[in-house]
Amino acid sequence: MSAPKIKVLCVDDSALIRDLMTEIINAHDDMEVVATAPDPLVARDLIKRTNPDVLTLDVEMPRMDGIDFLERLMRLRPMPVLMVSSLTQAGSEVTLKALELGAVDFIAKPQLGIRSGMLEYSEMIADKLRAAARSRPRAAPRRDAPRAATPVRAPLISSEKLIIIGASTGGTEAIRQVLEPLPANSPAILITQHMPGGFTRSFAERLDRLCRIQVKEAEEGERVLPGHAYIAPGDRHLKLARSGANYVVRLDDGEPVNRHRPSVDVLFHSAAVNAGRNAVGALLTGMGRDGAAGLLEMRQAGAHTLAQSEETCVVYGMPREAVALGAAVDIVDLDQMASRIMQLVAASGRAQRV
Predict the structure, then answer these.
(1) pLDDT averaged over the chain?
(2) Where do the catalytic residues lie (predicted)?
(3) Residues 6+ positions from 351 with CB-CB distance below 8 Å
């Protein structure tokens, strides 16, 4: 007996987008659009009637803003939501807010040639819907909930130490939860998060406002410094390299790896080659297998490696693949990841000084 189809409700004020999403989704045998809505008020009644597995939600709509609707929805009836966003600075900032409120992932509308562009995204949209249907919905955080993370204690750390992080679906909030508690003198951090160009700069700027460390979008050739986190620009691979005694950033326009550019495997491989046992690698929530083989390379090069626990992942795909390969030394809950990383960095430093 075949599995039931994934039921999708599409909410968008554009009739063209509603029609395109219906065409794309219904072309896949394992999913179907059960209803469409031009605004959140119509969607509210359709959710009750159709009980969808996944909601696609436009960011900007009449009658009720998509963000306001999402926040109410995730408090009253948490469910998998895939945002549909414009590829603009404003669109990226609003999308990051949606991910903070509990949206699983997002689809970026092409700026030109919407029909042809959306149809090119057909397989990616289907993959994101499948991942969303398997995800763990998160209730929206309370407005009055404390946001400041309890800082992790800062041991004396060698500037040779590095933290290398990879993530995909659900990763923007997971990365925030890892970085926020880190002390200002944390080892340097290199991060690959699957995200299109135009979004990573806003992501870095948002994290920089929230964290004690400095967070920025990585730039070609810059020196990798303690107390800084470097995020792979959308559409470019991030690599760690050496220049004399220093670590430096290398950016690469090479072919996608595991269908991704930036790819976590590319970053992890470069860390295995150039940092070895001086690195701690962490693979966080995400669909697919990108990063699993690279994390194994890091472990084989002497790095301590971590995978996020299934219970705390939005999508337990990449970490599961890493665990199956034997790539992860530890499996760690997300709320313990920052403290565990710092413990390992400190222990590694003590071992090397003995």
Answers:
(1) 90
(2) 168, 194, 290
(3) none
